[in-house]
Amino acid sequence: MEDFIPNFIALAYLAAIILFILGLKRLSSPATARSGNQLASLGMLLGVIVTLLDREIIAFEYILAGIVVGSLLGAAAAKKVEMTKMPELVAVFNGFGGIASALVALGAWFRVTDTALPGADLFIMGLSVLIGAVTFTGSLVAFGKLNGFIKGNAILFPLQNALNQILLLVAIVGIGWLILQPLEVAPILLISGISLLLGVLFVIRIGGADMPVVISLLNSLSGIAASFAGFVIDNNLLIVSGALVGAAGLILTDIMCKSMNRKLTSVLFARFGGSGAAGAAG
Amino acid sequence: MESLIFNLFIFVLACFVGFEVISKVPTTLHTPLMSGANAISGITLIGALAIAGSSSGTAATIIGFFAIVFATINVVGGFMVTDRMLEMFKKKKGDEA
């Protein structure tokens, strides 16, 4: 009995993963797409329910409150949105997924009490915050551009590309600092702040017409963020599902580019004529 | 760390599955597929549950709470809006026929 619950959870996670894979596959064909979405949502429900059986989860009041608030807001947004505004809504949801992954890694940082934590674990923790935060602000800017809150044109200024690369470098230095001094607040704050800024700078320079491709790319990134959050808390379901979305999202981004007769690199970097600028693409 | 290497194995293998699972997608399904995949990436909710539900201090619990709210919006809203898109898609097909 002592072993039953952990094994049961692991097997249920495996079932959830199978449902996600079948769901994604079915979503890519018109006849089966709706059932694919339903299978995937069933997988999610299964994952959440069995996670609550975990013995390490002992406080339920915040969980319940969070799920109720999130469900109400999510359902209201999904029901009320106009058909033409759906890509914007997907961008916002995607941003929320990204920030959630960053917060999971941040929450895990608060558990660190031991300076002897392996460097690789701290590296992934920092990376998880970085990618999640970039996804968050990047998606919000994409939303703003589609919605007209932010000027749709590419917003450009001199040395923009160099600035982005320097900021990315600073964020990576921040991760190195986190590894050296895991108990200090400054490194994790630096990583978070720079990453939030990077997400904005990364997307403002891309024109509004290319936003669907950018949202697809950010969707892929939010999958990677979830996967890395899974590394941080050592959870297979997160690692596998996040990687699935990350890879499938990348393929979809490529397919979307091709259907628009664009190259991904030219969407992201054309205006700079540079080919060596792949850094910020993650 | 052994578990890190093991996790890296399943990460790489899952990436290959993700690459293979999607090949040809008709243009009309681009947005619904993106939206559905996005809802799946809300799986980070599981991580948020672990952060908020374990006793690791007030700060972690509060951060976990916000992570749950954001991830749940992503999951619930994401699957619902995908369903709405696909419902619309079906109707459109019916009108054309």
TrEMBL record, chain B:
Record-annotated membrane-spanning stretches: 6-23, 35-53, 59-82
Subcellular locations according to the entry: Cell inner membrane
Membrane topology qualifier: Multi-pass membrane protein
One GO cellular component term noted in the UniProt record for this chain: plasma membrane
Keywords: Cell inner membrane, Cell membrane, Membrane, NAD, NADP, Translocase, Transmembrane, Transmembrane helix
Domain NAD(P) transhydrogenase alpha subunit C-terminal as annotated: residue spans: 8-91
UniProt record, GO biological process: NADPH regeneration
InterPro entries (alphabetical): NADP_transhyd_a_C
Catalyzed reaction equations: NAD(+) + NADPH + H(+)(in) = NADH + NADP(+) + H(+)(out)
GO molecular function (one): NADP binding
Origin superkingdom: Bacteria
PANTHER family cross-referenced by the UniProt entry: NAD(P) TRANSHYDROGENASE, PROTON-TRANSLOCATING NAD(P)(+) TRANSHYDROGENASE
UniProt-recorded name of the protein: proton-translocating NAD(P)(+) transhydrogenase
Organism expressing this protein natively: Cyclonatronum proteinivorum
Organism ancestry: Bacteria, Pseudomonadati, Balneolota, Balneolia, Balneolales
